[in-house]
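Quick one, T. Sequence first:
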Amino acid sequence: MAKTTKRSAKQQKEAGPKSSSTDANSPKIPKDFTKIPQSLESFAKHLSTNQFYIVHLDTNPKERKRQIFILPTVLNLVIIFVIIWRIYVGVYTYPDIIAAMLGRNNAVRIDTSTSSWGHISVVVVKRTFTFLFDYLLIALFLPWPIRFITGPTQWRRKLGFRPAEIVVRQSRSWSEGKTLEVSTTLDSDILKTKIVPAIHPTRLQKTGYLLIDPDWDLDFSAMLKAHELVDTKSLRLADFEACVLMYGGSETGWVIWRIEDEGQGGSSAERKALSQDKLTDIRAKLVAMGKEELFFRWVELMQYVLNTQAENLTGEDQDKALGEIRALFSSHGVEFDKFWEEVGGLEGMPTST
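Structure tokens:
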């Protein structure tokens, strides 16, 4: 019996460090991120594990989306027309030039024995620029309509223009190897310079096609897949509310940052500033002034401040946020100081000083 007790104690002693080691090696999820719900796994499996993703709903009017899509459509049609024209011209030009280079007599061959150096120079310069133009046209511009046809055109052909569209942005080459760096906090440079600017309310207000930039591209196949899942009732549009998706490795899997969820917390002062009563008063006053759109823009801006800066809000951050709010009100023709004096001031707001 004593031997059994000693053996059990020894086993427990040996098991202790192993358990601690297991906890230490267990996958960690970055702050603000949680594991994605099981329902979204059917969507996430179609995403690349080497990239970050930003998802949100584009609720811009259908007519605005249509108007914005016209410009790249016209531009790509012009490029296609120029390429076809150059191919047509080249069919009759390049064979003769190649034949002349091989020593055959034809209309494009230059007789150096009878031609002046001035004439020869002009012909050489013209042909050089022709070759250069055609090369750049094929090497640089031909991929544009190809990508446009296989991406945006196919996207619009299948989806059309809808009142609410799911926008999926994927990170570009800067994210290579970054998504697997899972720790208790996400790399601050990535968060501050890449993700936070991309989820600013002024960005999320734009229609999807205007969100393509050097850091983020649209994943058209993912957007079509998302709508397919919604159309088949596998998911809801609400599942694609503003969020950031990241793959944290085989053990962690996909994790999600629900952007709007962060605005629900905060200090009591923040909750007081954004209380329902005050929101109701502010909205009622702006509606009476014919400025309801300003109310929604202001709410989005406040949510952005709470989502991204609430925990480390410095005096400089407060001044910057307050300046953005002032500019927002000014752009809508509302006198900032007078308005807030009438609704009870800025006390308790995260941007107050």
